[in-house]
Amino acid sequence: MHKRVMVFSLIESRKWFTVNGSQRLCRPLSSVKVGHMWVQIMLKSSGGRRPKKKTYYRVNDLDRVMELQKKPSLILRLKSIIQSQKNRCILLRDLEKEVGFVQKWNFMGIIEKYPLIFRVAGGNRTPPMVMLTEKADKIALEEDEARVQMEPILVKNLRKLLMLSIDCTLPLETIQLIENDLGLPSDFEQSLIPKYPQFFSVKDVNGRTSIQLENWDSFLAVTVREEKLMRESVPTPKEKSRVLKDGNYCGPFAFQMRYPAGFRPNMNYLKEVQKWQKMEFPSPYLNAKRFELSDPKAQKRVVAVLHELLSLTMEKRLTSAQIDAFHSELRLPARLLLCLIKHHGIFYLTNKGVRSTVILKEAYDGSNLICKCPLLLFRDKFIALTGRRDIDSCTSVPPRFGQ
C-alpha cells in the first residue's frame, strides 16, 4: 500500500511554498515514486507530458532504525534533565517547563514504564518528584569516562568537518545544528574550542560567529572510505573485470553499494555503474571552488563529500534539513535530493520519524550500527536497563574510534 509523504528538505533553491496547508521554505521539484511511499516533487510543466516516475525501494531494516530510537531518545533526554538539576531530581510539576505540555505526557509514560531507570518519590505533603534509581545512577556516572574517551575523536572529526568546508570555516549555528549527531557537548564552544587554540579559533565572518580551522593537517585529509580501503588492502583491479550484479567494484575510487532486495537492475545499468565506480574523482578535502559541478568527476566528488559528512557523525545519519544547512559551505548541488535518490546503493532516504533522514547504508548491518563510538556504547548500556533485546551487542570500541 502506498503512502503519500512530502519531502522538501533537500531542495533546488529556496522559496516559500505551501505544503499541507503550512508555509515551508522550499522550491518544488519533480514527482518521484519511492517504493512503498511517495516523495512528491514538482517541477514546471514539460509540455503536457506526464512527469517520469521512478521506483525507490524501501529498506525495512533502515526504516526500523528510526523507529527504534524514539523511546531511547526520550529516556536519555529525561536522564539529562534530571542530572542537570541541582539535587539530581525534578518535580513532576516542573517537567512541563522543561519539555512542554504535549511532550510531558510522553515522559510521564516513560517514567511509569521503566521503574528500573526512574523512581518517583514524595506524595502527601511533599510534591512528587522523579529521579534516577540507584542502579541507573551508577551506570550514568560512566558517561563522564565515555566523554573523556570521545574528546580526541570529537577534535579530530571537527577538524575534518572544517577541512571539508570552503575556506575551512563554518558558522557556529551550522555546527550547532549537528552537535548532538557529532557527539559534541551542548556547550562545546566554551568547553572544547578554547582548549585547542592550535586547531580552532572563533571569528566574526560576515556578521556571523564562526569556527575557523587554524592549521591544515594533510594526514587528516583522508576520507573514511579511503581509510577503509587501506585497512582492507584492496587489490589493483584488472582492466577487464566481471560486472557484478550488486554494483560493487574493487578499485581505489569505488564506493560500497547495497541495493535493496527488490531492485533488479539490467546489465546496461550495471555497466554504467561499473563505469562510474572506475572513474577517478578529486578528494572531498580539495577546495570545492576549483570544480564545476557540470563535470562528472566533480559530481562524483559530491557523493564523496556526502559520504564523508555522514561518516563523521556518530550514527552515520543526518536529517535532510541538517544536510541542507551545509549547502553553501560544502558547495552541494542544487538538485541534492535527486543526487541522493540516484545513488540509492550508497544512501537511503527514509521518511520515518519526525523528519526525513539520510542514512549511510554501509554503516548498518540490518538495523544495527556496525561501528560504535564510546558515547554510543555508554548509551546502549544505559538503555539496556529497559530490557530491550534489539540493542547491538557491540561491546568494544571499533578500530577507527580507538584513539
UniProtKB/TrEMBL annotation:
PORR domain mapped to chain residues: 58-388
Entry's Gene Ontology molecular function annotations: RNA binding
InterPro entries on file: PORR_domain (IPR021099), PORR_fam (IPR045040)
Protein name per the record: PORR domain-containing protein
Species the sequence originates in: Capsicum annuum (Capsicum pepper)
